[in-house]
């Protein structure tokens, strides 16, 4: 079946990409306002938090208004709630996203204010419009955000971090071929997952669910992999996502190593839950 880029998904992918770039610039400017350490992992984690929160509701305006009306401390509490839900539902995603959620623990007042200012800027730029509903399939927001945060001017987007949508669609249409359930899509320079997003759109257009195939991605950048893990939830790629932090050229068998890491992690999580249940900590006499 031939794939037509214009029919890749709902909405207008080009407009969605422009919107993502706008949000990225606004987030970077808000984060750097007033100075302070660069720490790109923090604002990237803030945008990821809002993206994950927006998946749970269609009442975007009310959520945005509620968040904007909270104090910095209250927003941090809200962010912890969001990531606790991720821990319960997708602990493998939290494992990979750990580099962009460290700010949830031990945040001082100055950093908390920067975090809240950044969240407000993302909301004002319309992030919830882009990361909720079907429109979230049309763009990679976290790639441009990471690129803008790493740009010396804080107003440009590093092209290394993401692949433009039209290019990604053309590439994946060829790469996928006659895709069938159970097959794997592999990208050993995944960045924040732009090719994954495009491939998922092609697969949907062909009448399949992205969760029907396995997704393998590698990158040397742990922040990019953290963003790709979050994007896998945003784009509904399913649980068969294997991500690896490292150089695939130095580790030819990286996909098997990453799969084993994921299996081992799930075993540890399962064992920990069993221990907690056995201890029955909630009912332990004080």
From TrEMBL:
Ranges for domain DNA methylase adenine-specific: 154-255
Top-level taxon in the UniProt lineage: Bacteria
InterPro entries: DNA_methylase_A-5, SAM-dependent_MTases_sf
Transmembrane annotation, as ranges: none
Annotated GO MF terms: DNA binding; N-methyltransferase activity
Protein's name in the database: DNA methylase adenine-specific domain-containing protein
Organism annotation: Amycolatopsis mediterranei (strain S699) (Nocardia mediterranei)
Organism classification: Bacteria, Bacillati, Actinomycetota, Actinomycetes, Pseudonocardiales
């Amino acid at each position: 079946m031939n794939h037509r880029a214009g029919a890749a998904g709902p909405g207008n992918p080009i407009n969605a990409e422009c919107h993502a770039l706008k949000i990225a610039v606004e987030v970077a400017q808000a984060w750097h306002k007033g100075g302070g350490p660069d720490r790109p992992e923090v604002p990237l984690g803030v945008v990821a938090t809002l993206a994950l929160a927006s998946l749970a509701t269609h009442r975007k305006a009310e959520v945005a208004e509620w968040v904007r009306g909270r104090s910095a401390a209250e927003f941090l509490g809200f962010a912890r709630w969001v990531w606790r839900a991720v821990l319960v539902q997708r602990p493998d995603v939290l494992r990979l996203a750990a580099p962009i959620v460290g700010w949830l623990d031990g945040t001082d007042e100055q950093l908390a204010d920067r975090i809240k200012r950044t969240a407000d800027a993302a909301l004002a730029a319309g992030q919830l419009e882009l990361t909720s509903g079907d429109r979230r399939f049309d763009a990679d927001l976290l790639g441009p955000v990471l690129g803008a945060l790493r740009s010396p001017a804080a107003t440009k987007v590093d092209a290394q971090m993401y692949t433009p949508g039209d290019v990604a669609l053309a590439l994946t249409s060829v790469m996928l071929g006659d895709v069938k359930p159970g097959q794997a899509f592999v990208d050993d320079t995944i960045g924040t997952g732009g090719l994954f997003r495009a491939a998922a759109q092609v697969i949907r257009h062909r009448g399949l669910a992205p969760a029907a195939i396995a997704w393998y991605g590698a990158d040397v950048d742990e922040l990019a992999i953290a963003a790709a893990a979050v994007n896998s939830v945003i784009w509904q790629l399913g649980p068969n996502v294997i991500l690896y932090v490292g150089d695939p050229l130095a580790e030819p068998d990286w996909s098997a190593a990453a799969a084993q890491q994921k299996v081992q992690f799930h075993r540890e999580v399962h064992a920990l839950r069993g221990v907690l249940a056995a201890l029955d900590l909630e009912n332990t006499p004080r």
